[in-house]
Specification:
heterodimer; A: 521 residues; alpha/beta; 4 domains; 6-stranded mixed β-sheet; B: alpha+beta; CV3147-like; 2 domains; 11 helices
Chain lengths: 521, 375
């Protein structure tokens, strides 16, 4: 096992391309490579690894860390494949029975995932007092009934972020009835307040454990094949790293890691910590906000494959503005997207000899970009100019929407299609177009730090606010350190307090995130 | 007289009485965000409860007050406490049955129908779930015509109709019956009980026979909310214009939320949101002050609109209402105002829910005296 941080490989497995980069300990980019994504994870990663290793001409022993970002979990849910059958235990009766588990799931996904569900007595009040005694026997009876078909168990209790005791007791019952090997997910480690959304995230998490094993084994096999003996991580949806053992426990947290990686990469490439980031792809752009070097997280529920969850996801505005976005209509009544020629840009766009006007053509006509044959846009100038004005307006609105403050902030643009963006954006101090913008995702994975988060309801109970806040901060730092962060360099990167209405006793919900660079192993 | 009869929702006439089906419930929940004036909580939990209930029991009959006999007992019902607690501690669903049984035992007569206590936020939808579960019809009306934060802010209070006996029930089917000396005391007593029960509970109050209810009842508000939701859903062009044609919308400003300040005080969420004008309103700045519900809209130190008129931030594109806990920086909104029901605009009504009842030294000016409607 390596003794310290030397060379790191960042890999991003996207829908279209797999990108890989090598960085040294000072974060200098030594190699980068783009290759089409393969259906088989191991061979795709292997070929990416071989390509970048070939470029650096260094002994593989110098590779100390490998960071992988992947869309496997997202795709498994969207395509309803490789998901485990989950026995769903909710602890909350007699409350909550009016809305049983899976109530708002698409039928086909529910059929794939559910091995049965039960609502048993227990759970907590907002104050941490038990709602009613925990229904241990009901859990045991349910598990005996579904034990044959269940491949994983998801346990969610009312107000478990306040008091998780009943969830933990239920896990013990699972161990007694179904043995030590069946994967168990507890909602207290996964989502924030909002029982239904947290339960959904917990069920998805349990269903994804099989996918997580596949990814972890695929990565490990690819590393072995290349003779790499390095510490491996996956990136999660807040742009930070998790160790492989953590991936097996919380696979749902890898969903949304793609945009998080590109924003973290943009942060590093542009050397800014607070900025709006626009990641322009072929079909669409993601606009997000960096705060203290991290993507700001969404506070509204997120839909994944038709299931509403509330776990940590970057707050993004997606707009149908990409390099391949099609332009139709007339100069007076122009339509921009949402269709795109996608990866066929180099055959279909006007400047490449095709017949489809795209935003790339518009960028060439306006002198923003030079690619292909600039004279091929002749006759379409007015339409393309109108389209570009419309696209610019969409970018302006999205940028303004995502900003958290009224003052001007820098704007960082990354992604292959970013040449189509305007030279100036209102409310933006300056536009930064960093080098190597095309592999921002893989770089984001390689430079990712390790984080820990606390999202809990605290009763002040005589303590002052600061005391409770300090407690939450210490807990978040501990989480980050146990996930692998350097104890000397961990810092608090985000604090949010939300007071709760209609309670006479002061109760406050606190979200704190701590993060730090990789510690020495 | 409260709402124009000509515009009343006319549901499927093959059923008699009309029934609230699943699509109606979705529309109702959207209508409740519009009529909430920012308060009352996200209706989603109530909607899911109601959908689950009617899938088991079939659609809930929505009846006109006049279809009841004069002596028939109506129980208005709703959740009281923190909607933010209810997203965890979801009700059992049998609260309607428990409330009904408690009233029948206490008053020694059958309950003929349930009715929503308020027509805004989660409380416009929850009673549908309870009515379905209890096998009772729902009266098409309510006692607020919007959402308000306190229990005496109900129309019967204007006529000295007692709010008691009031039955508060929790998800454990624990029942507390209140017999306070007046409606303001009920607010105090119930608020404390709800805190002990864990932050939210369900209640039946202002029990009335149909004869008594005829005076305070705000008629047709359930079908009105359904119609608002339907209008927003089906508007092909401009949902604001369609909404205006439906319920008279007075837009104060089109803008972007540039600041939100929320804090708890005295058991309520108080604070303000600042909306900066965009499009034709560029250069203007309007501050919305709220105590759960939006209370006043201020510009340059002057009130543009106040309670009891309904001030709701409407999503700039969809025209759906945004509840206070979901206001965020950057949202594009239309600050929309709807006329309060006439009962709230009387001298007595204003003493209970006018600007001074919420601590503002302002005279109430009806929104239509100061502002134009859409277009």
């Amino acid at each position: 096992m390596p003794g310290s941080v030397d060379l790191r490989i960042g890999i991003d497995v996207g829908g279209t391309n797999t990108d890989a980069v090598v960085l040294d300990s000072a974060n200098r980019l030594l190699a980068k490579h783009k290759t089409p994504t393969t259906p088989d994870l191991t061979s795709g990663i292997t070929s990416a690894l071989e390509a970048v290793l070939g470029q650096i001409d260094q002994p593989v022993e110098r590779i100390t860390h490998v960071m992988l970002g992947t869309t496997h979990a997202t795709n498994a849910i969207l395509e309803r494949r490789d998901l485990l059958k989950v026995a769903v235990v909710r602890i909350g009766a007699p409350a909550t029975v009016s809305i049983p588990p899976f109530s708002d799931w698409p039928d086909d996904l529910r059929q794939v995932v559910s091995a049965g569900e039960v609502v048993v007595p227990g759970g907590s009040e907002v104050t941490g007092v038990p709602l009613v005694p925990f229904g241990r026997d009901e859990v045991a009876r349910f598990l005996e009934k579904v034990g044959d078909s269940a491949e994983a168990v998801a346990i969610s209790g009312v107000f478990s972020p306040v008091s998780g005791d009943h969830e933990q007791e239920a896990e013990q019952v699972v161990r007694e009835v179904l043995g030590p090997d069946i994967p168990v997910s507890l909602s207290q480690g996964i989502g924030a307040l909002g029982l239904l959304e947290r339960e959904n995230a917990c069920i998805l998490n349990a269903a994804l454990v099989g996918v997580a094993h596949k990814v972890v084994h695929g990565l490990t096999a690819a590393l072995t094949q290349n003779g790499i003996d390095a510490v491996a991580f996956l990136t999660q949806n807040d742009g930070t790293l998790m160790g492989l053992d953590y991936v097996l426990r919380f696979p749902v947290l890898t969903i949304g890691s793609g945009p998080a990686n590109s924003m973290r990469g943009a942060c590093y490439l542009a050397d800014v910590s607070d900025a709006v980031v626009v990641d322009v792809g072929g079909t669409s752009s993601d606009v997000g906000m960096l705060l203290n070097g991290f993507p700001r997280e969404s506070s509204t529920p997120t839909d994944i494959g038709g299931v509403r969850t509330n776990f940590r996801m970057p707050d993004l505005v997606a707009i149908a503005v990409g390099g391949g976005t099609r332009v139709t209509g007339s100069a007076e009544d122009v339509r921009v997207g949402p269709e795109s020629v996608g990866y066929r840009l180099r055959e279909e766009a006007l400047v490449f000899g095709g017949t489809t006007p795209t935003l790339s053509d518009a960028a060439v006509a306006a002198g923003r970009a030079s690619m292909g044959d600039a004279t091929a846009v002749a006759g379409h100038e007015e339409l393309l100019a109108a389209a570009l004005r419309r696209a610019d307006e969409l970018v302006f609105v999205a940028t303004d929407q995502i900003k958290t403050a009224r003052g001007p902030v820098p704007l960082v643009v990354v992604g292959g299609g970013s040449v189509i963006l305007p030279p100036e954006v209102p409310g933006v101090a300056q536009i930064v177009r960093p080098e190597n913008y095309d592999v921002a995702n893989a770089i984001g994975a390689a430079i990712a730090s390790v984080s820990g988060q606390v999202d809990k309801v605290f009763k002040l109970a005589g303590r002052d606010r600061q005391e409770v806040l300090d407690l939450a901060c210490a807990a978040a730092k501990d989480e980050a350190i146990s996930a692998g962060a350097d104890p000397a360099a961990v810092e608090i990167v985000e604090v949010e307090e939300v007071p709760m209405a209609y309670l006479t006793e002061p109760v406050v919900r606190i979200r704190v995130k701590a993060a730090g660079p990789l510690g020495r192993m | 007289m409260e709402w124009r009869r000509a515009r009343t929702y006319v549901p499927d006439m093959t059923n008699d009485p009309p029934k609230l089906d699943e699509q109606d419930l979705v529309d109702l929940s959207v209508g409740c965000t519009v009529l909430a004036g920012g308060g009352g909580g996200d209706p989603r939990i109530g909607l899911l409860m109601a959908l689950n209930a009617v899938r088991r029991t079939g659609p809930v009959p929505l009846i006109d007050l006049d279809s009841l006999a004069a002596d028939d007992l109506i129980v208005p019902a709703g959740m009281i406490g923190a909607p933010t607690v209810m997203v965890e501690k979801i009700p059992n669903g049998n609260e309607g049955d428990v409330i009904r049984a408690a009233f029948e035992a206490r008053l020694n007569r059958p309950v003929a129908a349930l009715m929503p206590l308020e027509m805004g936020g989660i409380n416009g939808v929850l009673p549908v779930a309870w009515a379905a579960h209890a096998g009772l019809p729902l009266v098409d009306g309510d006692l607020m015509g919007r959402a308000f934060p306190e229990l005496q802010m109900c129309t019967p209070h204007l006529y000295d109709i007692p709010s008691w006996p009031c039955v508060v029930v929790d998800e454990r089917s624990q029942v507390i019956t209140f017999e306070p000396r007046d409606n303001v005391w009920l607010e105090r007593l119930a608020r404390n009980a709800v805190s002990t029960l864990g932050g939210c509970a369900c209640a039946g109050l202002y029990p009335m026979d149909a004869r008594t209810a005829a005076t305070p009842l705000l008629r047709g508000t359930v079908s009105r909310a359904v119609q608002i939701g339907r209008t927003i859903r089906t508007a092909t062009d401009d949902p604001f214009r369609a909404l205006d044609a439906q319920v008279d919308l007075y837009p104060l400003l089109t803008g972007k939320v540039v600041d939100v300040d929320r804090r708890t005080a005295g058991g309520f969420v108080r604070g303000s949101a600042v909306v900066e004008g965009i499009e034709h309103d560029a250069g203007r700045l309007v501050r919305i002050e709220f105590q759960n519900e939006n209370l006043v809209a201020m510009e340059d130190g002057e009130a543009l609109a106040t309670v009891p008129d309904i001030i709701t931030l409407l999503d700039r594109h969809s025209a759906r209402g945004i509840v206070t806990e979901h206001i965020r920086y950057g949202q594009r909104v239309v600050v929309g105002v709807f006329r309060a029901p006439d009962q709230w605009r009387s001298e007595r009504g204003l003493s209970v829910v006018g600007p001074r009842a919420f601590g503002y030294d302002l005279d109430y000016v009806p929104v239509e005296d100061r502002h134009a409607r859409v277009g």
